[in-house]
């Protein structure tokens, strides 16, 4: 699933290509928006909110999308090239100079801009947004003290923008087992963890290749995520994976059993 930095970058790309321009053509290929036509309206701005994209259009309307596991937005200069298989395209928005296509979007809807809260109001502070508040994020994290740290970090109601990559990497940086109850962690450690989350997403939001280790070498860009069976850079122990979350929606976390020992 795309993480907050990926969605921020998508919003920036869309904003730079479309903002301030009149939409000459719109085509929404989902049932609830089949009759929507926004042509003739100016696209005012595109912003991200956690993992959500909000495309605000003249007349007090917002096109809201979520990328889910496999969704994406692509932008081409006119005349546009191919955007992939036609059956994967859920939306097309064209101006005089660019065309944007939303592919495989699990969420696509039209809202009144003043009612965006209905779609994103449940989210916690956005790590890449103007509302970022580390104190509020910490307060939300510890509301469920028995919850595993990895699950608390992934819950967008606590803080918005963290996905599997950052959840695994942050637990490693904190030298903490992903399954540690979040309520047992000292406040200073939580504060440092949130500081690291903010720093990493800010550092990576403009990069195509995400890095959390400080190394520019692609094979050493991440500490544990995706490195199952390979040696930990810190101690040499074999990186492992484990599961968490409800049985109907299991998720994977990567960790070093030596650097992140379980709580005893």
Automatic annotation (TrEMBL):
Coiled coil: none annotated. InterPro entries: DNA_glyclase_Znf_dom_DNA_BS, FPG_cat, FPG_N, H2TH_FPG, Nei2_N, Ribosomal_uS13-like_H2TH, Znf_DNA_glyclase/AP_lyase. Residues 223-261 form the FPG-type domain. CDD domains: AcNei2_N (cd08971). It catalyses: 2'-deoxyribonucleotide-(2'-deoxyribose 5'-phosphate)-2'-deoxyribonucleotide-DNA = a 3'-end 2'-deoxyribonucleotide-(2,3-dehydro-2,3-deoxyribose 5'-phosphate)-DNA + a 5'-end 5'-phospho-2'-deoxyribonucleoside-DNA + H(+). SMART domains: Fapy_DNA_glyco, H2TH. GO terms for biological process: base-excision repair. Residues 2-93 form the Formamidopyrimidine-DNA glycosylase catalytic domain. Its EC number is 4.2.99.18. One of its GO terms (molecular function) is class I DNA-(apurinic or apyrimidinic site) endonuclease activity. Keywords: DNA damage, DNA repair, DNA-binding, Glycosidase, Hydrolase, Lyase, Metal-binding, Multifunctional enzyme, Zinc, Zinc-finger. Signal peptide: none annotated. Belongs to the FPG family. PANTHER family: ENDONUCLEASE 8. This is DNA-(apurinic or apyrimidinic site) lyase.
